[in-house]
């Protein structure tokens, strides 16, 4: 779809006394909000409407589809956005404000510190619509790291009514009185259908090997592909997954014979999101994929890209000959972060907390995966 239009399809008609808009402006937003939409549908006491918006709304729309939760509203653009952040923010502010006027939701939910989240929170605050901030709180002590997400996260924290955190953190200042630990809803998404990747993700999350995910499509990235066997030799505690057009090139043949390497031509988006989130570092010549990586908690290296690094940026634009050196530096500095086992109830905890905010249950803390009056 190439036209620039108002929202895709007719606006939904609320079916509950309370409704909440789950506003996503990027694929990382979708990865956290799609499981939440499913949890709201399962509990059947609050209507949750998924909104695909942002500077590239069709990419967000397709991400919702890929994760099995179609977007209820897709805000197509009236004209191509100017690439400057201020112009994108101005365009989003007008579009999201129009949607809030049309739907008049009981609340909105945003994730993290992306531009779309910051704009949606600001507009909702102006309209006196409560804001629920998923993965709220201060992530680092440095306002510029990551840039600009950390600053956006703190701005949203000043506007939100309900703060949903992934876990207890001693960094920075408290998020507010209505702070509830729910866990990371990313872990509730379906596991990769390919058993090789499902097992790899489980091993990584059990503090096993560190994963280096490599997506290469351009012929001038062959030097990076050729350097991967040496990286495996130098880093015995890593595993590598290679995908993209160059996966079919003869230079990938040595990796096919290596027990710690997996080579595939394509990865479905649902599996790609899980692998990026599980990776210690992403290496790719796809600028859009690299731009998504920090939102999934993964540092990224853009091969021969135009990206100009900002203070605190976790995206590095590196010429091909220096990519392997940079990857080893990232692996050396990142270390291994212990992972708390997930119980699969993070999204249900989000629904419970919002239901409590609306006065539909006496406690914000989940005692059962489903409310007592819900048929399973």
Automatic annotation (TrEMBL):
Enzyme class at the top of the EC tree: isomerase
Isomerase keyword on record: yes
Keyword Isomerase found: yes
Classification via Gene3D superfamilies: Glycogen Phosphorylase B (3.40.50.2000)
Record-linked InterPro entries: UDP_GlcNAc_Epimerase_2_dom, WecB-like
Enzyme Commission number(s) of this protein: 5.1.3.14
Cited PANTHER family: UDP-N-ACETYLGLUCOSAMINE 2-EPIMERASE (PTHR43174)
Protein name: UDP-N-acetylglucosamine 2-epimerase (non-hydrolyzing)
């Amino acid at each position: 779809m190439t036209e620039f239009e108002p929202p895709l399809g007719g606006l939904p008609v609320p079916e509950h006394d309370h409704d909440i808009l789950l506003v996503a402006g990027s694929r990382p937003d979708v990865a956290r909000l799609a499981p939440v939409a499913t949890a709201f549908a399962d509990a059947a006491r609050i209507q949750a409407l998924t909104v695909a918006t942002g500077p590239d709304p069709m990419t967000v729309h397709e991400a919702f589809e890929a994760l099995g939760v179609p977007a209820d509203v897709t805000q197509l653009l009236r004209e191509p956005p100017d690439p400057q952040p201020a112009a994108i923010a101005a365009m989003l502010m007008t579009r999201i404000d129009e949607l809030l006027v049309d739907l008049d939701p009981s609340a909105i939910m945003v994730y993290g510190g992306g531009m779309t989240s910051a704009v949606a929170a600001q507009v909702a605050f102006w309209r006196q619509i409560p804001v629920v901030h998923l993965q709220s709180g201060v992530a680092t002590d440095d306002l510029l790291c990551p840039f600009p997400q950390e600053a956006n996260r703190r701005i949203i924290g000043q506007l939100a009514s309900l703060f949903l955190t992934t876990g207890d953190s001693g960094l920075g200042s408290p998020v507010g009185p209505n702070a509830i630990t729910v866990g990371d809803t990313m872990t509730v998404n379906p596991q990769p259908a390919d058993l090789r990747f499902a097992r790899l993700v489980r091993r990584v999350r059990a503090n096993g090997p560190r994963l280096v995910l490599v997506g290469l499509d351009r012929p001038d990235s062959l030097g990076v592909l050729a350097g991967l066997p040496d990286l495996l030799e130098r880093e015995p505690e890593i595993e590598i997954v290679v995908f993209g057009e160059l996966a079919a090139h003869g230079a990938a043949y040595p990796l096919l014979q290596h027990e710690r390497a997996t080579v595939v031509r394509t990865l479905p988006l649902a599996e790609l999101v899980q692998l990026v989130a599980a990776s210690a570092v992403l290496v790719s010549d796809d600028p859009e994929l690299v731009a998504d990586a920090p939102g999934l908690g993964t540092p990224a290296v853009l091969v021969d890209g135009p990206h100009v690094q900002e203070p605190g940026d976790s995206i590095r634009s590196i010429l091909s000959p220096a990519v392997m050196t940079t990857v080893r530096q990232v692996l050396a500095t990142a270390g291994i972060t212990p992972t708390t086992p997930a119980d699969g109830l993070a999204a249900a905890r989000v629904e419970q907390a919002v239901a409590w905010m609306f006065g539909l249950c006496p406690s914000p803390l989940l005692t059962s995966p489903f409310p007592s009056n819900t048929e399973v």
